[in-house]
Amino acid sequence: MSQSPNRLIGAIFGIVYLLVGVAGFFVTTNVAFAATAGKPLVVFDVNPLHNIVHLLVGAALLIGSFTVRSAKAVNATVGGVYLLVGIVGLFLVGSSANILALNGADNVLHFASAILLLGVGLSADRSPAPARATAGRTP
C-alpha cells in the first residue's frame, strides 16, 4: 500500500463498508426499500436503501485507494459527506424523512467515520513544499 495512510484507510473502510452493505441485505429481506424503521445489523439499523448506500460508499473508497491522490480526495469527500449525514441524522431519527432508517448508533458511526476520513484525507500524505528561490541570492 506504499506507506500511504490515505490508501490504507480508504482500502480498509472500503472493504468494511462493502461487507456491511452485503450483510445488510441478509437482515432486510422483509423491509421496505426506504423504510424509516429498519432491521438491526448488530446495533445499526439498516434498510435496503441504506445497504445500497453502504455498497456505493465502500466501492468509492476502495476504488479511490488505488492512488494516493484519489485516496486523499475520496477520503476527504466521503468524510465531509459523513459529517453532514451525522449532523442531519440527529434531526432525522424518529421522523418520516428518515429514509435510511438511521438510529443513534448510525449517527455515532457517521461522526467517527467523518473524523477519521477527514483527518487522514486533509492531513496525511502531504507533498513536501517545493524549494523557493530567494531574490538576490546565488547558491
Give the SSE map.
Elements: H1 5-27, E1 39-41, E2 44-46, H2 48-64, H3 68-92, H4 104-123
Antiparallel strand pairs: 1-2
Helix pairs in contact: 1-2, 1-3, 2-3, 3-4
Summarize the structure.
The protein has helices at 5-27, 48-64, 68-92, 104-123, and strands at residues 39-41, 44-46. The protein has 139 residues and is mainly α. The protein starts with a helix and ends in a 16-residue tail after the last helix.
Descriptive keywords:
mainly alpha; elongated; 139 residues; two-stranded antiparallel ribbon; 4 helices
The major beta sheet can be summarized as: 2 strands, antiparallel
Shape: elongated
Domain count: 1
Fraction of residues in H or I helices: 55-70%
Mean pLDDT: 92
Task: Give the CA-CA distance, first to last residue.
Answer: 38 Å
Tally of separate helices: 4
Estimate what percentage of residues fall within beta strands.
under 5%
Write the H/E string, N to C: HEEHHH
Structural class: mainly alpha
Would you report the number of β strands? 2
* Order of strands across the main sheet: 1-2
Low-confidence stretches: none
Query: In angstroms, what is the radius of gyration?
Result: 19 Å
Question: Can you put this structure into words, describing what you see?
Answer:
The chain is mainly alpha-helical. The chain has one domain. It has 4 helices and 2 strands, in the order αββααα. A two-stranded antiparallel ribbon has the order 1-2. Strand 1 (39-41) and strand 2 form a beta hairpin.
